[in-house]
């Protein structure tokens, strides 16, 4: 498990591109046949990428979280951004198609991952797990791709028309603090979350997927008056601290998993920033 310590906005002006990428961009979360994990001290979020090949991969525990099992005092939302696969939680197996989400609550014991047909046209499953500490237990719940609460946002004229699926949230799948969903850009649209905003009470992580291999998303971060950017490829994640904006424009259409943890679960708890105030 890689550890990343929390940062303050005062550090950003002195960072070069390499430092920005080391602090906020997770480049190698998915590796075939392996489980990769990153622990960020921003709201103690853990990110995990799992790519099963020939057999099942079990979710390990880690010394960094000081627990006998991964879910002893944690919960997680898991989205499959690859080919079809299954997740088994305490003996119950859940089928996840591309874009589907499984919530796993505090107290789950054995959790394993398997690809349905790793050599097939769709390739192996790629399970993206977003975890935060939890103080209550809720049952494992599956949401099929395109389900949950659906919100249509943006406008074709501003190139940010998008469909937002809320999976784990206060009016959907119940959790302790994790809020999670998937947003898909409509064809011909490139911008997400513009005008931008911050969440002063929560950390948010974007995981970009369904992006062509040669395409990139220019992801904006930093305080509104001190912005920076990252060039992000398919399957890469950006950690957005509570003081940072999070917005991006792609060289092609794409989808992304957004997930938050922190003070509350109110989706609309955000502080908007007019475009003219960005620097």
TrEMBL record:
Leader peptide range in chain numbering: none
Top-level taxon in the UniProt lineage: Bacteria
EC number in record: 5.3.1.17
Any one GO molecular function term: 4-deoxy-L-threo-5-hexosulose-uronate ketol-isomerase activity
Cofactor requirements of the protein: Zn(2+)
Binding site for Zn(2+): 197, 199, 204, 246
Keyword set includes Metal-binding: yes
Pathway participation: Glycan metabolism; pectin degradation; 2-dehydro-3-deoxy-D-gluconate from pectin: step 4/5
Family recorded in the similarity comment: Belongs to the KduI family.
UniProt-recorded name of the protein: 4-deoxy-L-threo-5-hexosulose-uronate ketol-isomerase
Natural source organism: Kineococcus radiotolerans
């Amino acid at each position: 498990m890689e550890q990343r310590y929390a940062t303050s906005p005062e550090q950003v002006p002195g960072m070069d591109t390499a430092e920005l990428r080391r602090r906020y961009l997770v480049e190698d979360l998915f590796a075939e046949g392996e489980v990769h994990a990153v622990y960020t001290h921003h709201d103690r979020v853990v990110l995990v990428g799992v790519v099963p090949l020939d057999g099942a991969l079990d979710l390990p525990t880690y010394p960094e979280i000081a627990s006998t099992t991964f879910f002893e005092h944690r919960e997680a939302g898991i989205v499959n951004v690859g080919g079809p696969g299954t997740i088994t939680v305490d003996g119950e197996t859940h089928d996840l198609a591309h874009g589907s989400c499984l919530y796993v609550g505090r107290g789950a014991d054995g959790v394993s991952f398997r690809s349905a047909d790793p050599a097939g046209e769709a390739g192996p499953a790629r399970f993206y797990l977003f975890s935060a500490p939890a103080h209550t237990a809720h049952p494992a719940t599956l949401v099929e791709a395109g389900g949950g609460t659906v919100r249509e946002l943006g406008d074709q004229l501003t190139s940010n028309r998008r469909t937002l699926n809320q999976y784990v949230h206060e009016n959907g799948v119940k959790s302790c603090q994790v809020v999670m969903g998937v947003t898909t850009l409509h064809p011909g649209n490139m911008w997400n979350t513009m005008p931008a905003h911050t969440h002063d009470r929560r950390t948010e992580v974007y995981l970009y997927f369904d992006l062509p291999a040669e395409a990139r998303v220019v992801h904006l971060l930093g305080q509104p008056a001190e912005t920076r950017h990252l060039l992000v490829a398919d399957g890469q994640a950006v950690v957005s601290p509570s003081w940072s904006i999070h917005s991006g424009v792609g060289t092609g259409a794409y989808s992304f998993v957004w997930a938050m943890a922190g003070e509350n679960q109110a989706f609309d708890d955000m502080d908007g920033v007019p475009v003219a105030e960005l620097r």
